[in-house]
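re: that chain from earlier
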Amino acid sequence: MASTPASPEFNEMSLDPLDLLDQLAKARTELAQVKAQLEVLRDQDPLTGLPNRMRLADRTDQAILRAHREGTLVAVLFIELDRFKAINQTLDFAEADDLCLQLVRRLGMLLNPGDTLARVGSDQFAVLLPEVLDPMEPLKMAQGLLDAIRIPFREGQREIRLTASIGISISPQDGDEAASLQKEAENAANRAKAAGGDALQCTTLTLSEASFERQQMEAYLGQAILKNELQILYQPQSTADGTIFGMEALLRWEHPVLGQVPPAKFVPLAEENQFIHALGEWALTTACRQASIWQAMSPRPVRLAVNVSPLQLNHPGWVDFVARTLRESRLSPSCLELEITETVLLKHAKSSLTMFHDLKRLGVAFGIDDFGTGYSSLSYLQRFPIDTLKIDQTFVRGMFPSQPGVLSSMPIVQTIVNLARNLGMRVVAEGVETEQQKQALVKMECHGFQGYLMGRPMDAAEMTQRLEAQIDSAFDALLPPQPLGRAN
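^ sequence. v structure.
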């Protein structure tokens, strides 16, 4: 029987088996890529690329499981923009998208590695803080986000101002699941919005109290100067024999309701709200006027050390203000030393170098406060006109550790003293509280000492008495000895 010729369909299917396997593998790869793209689209916001509500919930649940094992906390911050829909109606689609992307970039700059920023609605965002050690961390982060959102945005030729309402929830206090944390944070944000917006609300009681205290403090701080609530205290700096050669001016705030507010609380707040310029100018003016009085009564110069904020350093009128203050107070520039921290110096090195040299030409001295606790680079000591290094009190306390097995900081202190002397700088030890510490520093040839052993911070009247006693003692030492009386 004659064989039947193969049909065309049969010939097309009669491919090489290897070709069939290649095509099948290619099809599977393409299908996997499509599935992966669908997974990405399912879990992220298409405009910003941020995780969406579903992906945020997954990461929150994972963070809660880790927190249970490690004994940490998890916080969710729900951010709802105030009146954003009305603002959006004034923009076209491209402008609205660009404004949203600007906002995302700004918020993202404030987050730490491991934090998650998600977009959970057209005008709603959320932040996951997965490893919280201090319950106050979420409050500080929320306040930073609020402050960042308040800074005007630019869209073309327009300036757009936004505010937000932020709610904070913390696990385990406010729930042990992502859904409950997100719900509690969103409810808190809604309460903040109902109260007028541009504020934060906390579900945890301690955070709510801290938030209220901060808002109170902010309101009171703006009136502190006008209501004469601020005070300058002076802590003496002495040589080994107890002679006062200078003092540090310390700003204090006594409020009739809040009581004594520590500088660690109100100074950062003043910097955040730009009050620091008014506070800093008041402190420098007051201290220089008082130092001018001491300069007139003392036979030897007495140096005044005043702390300076980084915001003051970057203010364009700072040099002129210092020059005017010295001129009006009639204080010799050589009697003024401006103190900055090591970290601030390096962080603002480029922008502040010119200012340093301008002030140096006036005759003002510079000191590095808390030396040794900042960056390890010492190159700035060559570039900046530094006169004094102040050894941080943690190193002074650590020279004689009370716990067994803890290494003494004596070698570190000796290194700082040697460094200062070799560079021709004065070195002052802070936090000297015992005679043992003082004698060890004397052996190291430390120049100056500051701490409770030499004197606690005191008001201007008490410091004046100390200086007068020192002047009288020096005068008595110059008098010839009195002849002994004749015995009867």
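The first strand starts at residue 73 and ends at 81.
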